[in-house]
C-alpha cells in the first residue's frame, strides 16, 4: 500500500503537493510541524494548535525518555493519549539532542553513551533502543538514530560519521517492528560526493521517507540550498522528503521549490516567547493577495524579492500606545481580541499570557504560510 | 435607583442572596472575584475566566498606575477594552499595595507618598487621585483609599489610622464624579469599639457598598469571624458587603453565613501556579451531593465538620503513574482532557501549560463553590 501520493507538481519548480497517510490520519504536504518537545507545544494546548491548522506535531525522544520516562508513557497508553493529541506525531530519534544537550557523550559502534542534562545519569542510546522508545511513544513517523556532525567538519570526519549513520540506519530498519512510518536521515555535511553517496545508500536500504539532516547547523543558507539541489534529485519521487530543523519563512519556500515536503522548527514558538511576531507584509497586500499572486504567477516567479512578512518586536516602546492588532490580516486569538499595546504590556509585566498569545499567533502564521504554499502549487 | 437587591435570606444564618447592578451587568451575590492584578488573570484569558463562571474580576490600581500607566489605559478606552473583558471590574484603591509592596512610604494627611517597587520612582497617592485613576480605568466598583494597618497593631495606632481613613473616605466620596459604584472600607483592627465606631462613621458618610478591611493580614481566623460578627450587624441590609482578601473555601462559607456578599483572594490562582489543586471531597459525595445536602439542611447545619474538599499537591511522586483526572467530578478543561500523570509531568518539566491548566481548575473550583453557596441559600 502506498503511504504517500504526489497529487500535483509545480510547473516552474520541483515543488509538489501530496498526501501522507499515517496511523492517525492523512496529512497534506508540504507541511510544518510545531514542536512539542516534552509532550506539549510550549504554553498552548493541543486543541489550540489544532485550531491554528496544525496537522501533525513533533516530539523529542531524548526529552521524553528522560522525563517523564517510558513507564509513564506506557501507563498512559502512548504519547497521543498522554498529551491528548489525536493527530499524527513525528518523533526524532534523540540523536540530535544527545549531541547538542548532553554533557558527556561517547560514540561507539553500538550507539551513543551520554549523560542526562537533567541529573547526570548515564544512558546508552542505540539504534534499536531509539526505535523501541519511538514505538512505545506510538509515533506515527519515527526517525532513525543518526550522528549529526557540527558545521564545519572535516571531510574525513564527515565520511566516518556518515558510514556509522548508514550502519545504524540498517539496524534501525531491522529493529522496526510496527506498521508506522520509519524515515532515514541523509548526512554528508556540505560535501557533494558524500551527500550523493549517502542518499544513495539510504535509498538502497529503503525507508518510508527521507530526511535531509545535518543542515541548519550554522552553515550559510546558500550552502543549505545547494545541498538540497544535490540530494533531492537522488530521492524517489514517491517518498516524502523532510528538511529537519528548517526554518525561516523564506527558507521554507526555497526548500519547497527544491522539492521538500516536510518541515519543523523552533523559530515560530521560540521567537514568540521572546516577543518577536510574524506579520504579513503589505507589499503583497496581505495573505490573500500573496496566495493569489503565487497561484497566478507560479511559485518560482512570485515576487519574494519584496519581503512578504515583517518581524514585529512587540517590546519596543513604539507599540506602547498602539491599539491596532498585531496583524490586522490575521485571524488568530491574539489579533482578534487584543491590541499591540496590551500584548506589549503583558510582556513588560511578565504575564505568562503574553507567551501564549504570541505563540498562537506565530504558529498560526506558519501554518497559514504552509496553506498558502499548498494553494500556490 | 437601587443598585443592590437582596432576593433571599437563609433561615438559619445571616447568609443572603442578592443581585448587584453594575455598569457592565448584573452580578449574583455572594460572588468571588478572580484576581487580574495587572489587567490579566495570570496565565489565562478573560474568555476562559468567563467560561469558568466568573461574573466579575478584580484589578489593582497600584499596579496599573505604574504599569502600563494611565496614558495607555486612556488610549485603549479604559481597562475593559484594554484587556478585552466585557463584564464588571472591581478595582482596589492602591492603598493595600502601597503598604505591602513599596519600599518607602510616608503617610501624610494629604495622602501617601511611596516609591515604586519597579523603578524607585516617587509618587503621591491621594484619595482624590485614587478615585481619578479608578474612573479612568472605568472600574464598575471603586474602593476608597484607606490605610490598612498590620496585625497586631496598638490600639492608639489603630485609632489614628482609622481616623485618617475616615477623612480620606469623605474626600473620596466628594471626588467621585461618575455613576459607577463607590465602596467604603471599614477598619479598626481587632478592637471591638473601634470596629463599631468606624463602621458607623462610614455608614453615615454613605457608600454604595461596604468592605471589611484590615482582615486576612495575619490574625487568627477566629478573630476574623469575630470582627465580622461585630461589623456586619452595623451595615445596612440593602448594601453589598465585601470581605477583602478572603480566603480559603471554608472561610468564605463562614463569612457568607455571617452576611458577607463579596470575596476576592489570590489563593486559587497562586496555589494553582504552585501545583496545589482543589478537589471536591468524597465525604459529601461530590459537588452535587454537597449542594443537595446544603439545600436540604440549611447553610448552618451543613456537615462541614468533614472536609468537603482536598488539596492535591500534583508534584508528589504518587501521581506519576496516576492516569485519573485531577478531579473526576470536575468539568474544567484540565479534568476533561488530561490526567494527573500528565499535569505532574508538565509541572516537573516547567511547561507553562501546567500553570494555566491548574489555574483554570482552581478558578473553576472557587466559582463552582460560589454557585453551590448561592444554591444553598
Q: What do these coordinates show?
A:
Two copies of one chain form a homodimer. The first copy, chain A, is α/β, with parallel strands linked by helices and 377 residues long. The first copy, chain A, folds into two domains: 4-265, Alpha-Beta Barrel (TIM Barrel); 272-376, no CATH class. Helices cover 41% and strands 18% of the residues of chain A. Chain A contains 15 helices and 16 strands. In chain A, helix 12 packs parallel to helix 15 (352-376). The longest helix of chain A is centred in the C-terminal third of the chain and has 25 residues, at 352-376. Chain A starts with a strand and ends with a helix. The model of chain A has no long low-confidence stretch (mean pLDDT 93). At the A-B interface, helix 3, helix 14 and helix 15 of A face helix 3, helix 14 and helix 15 of B.
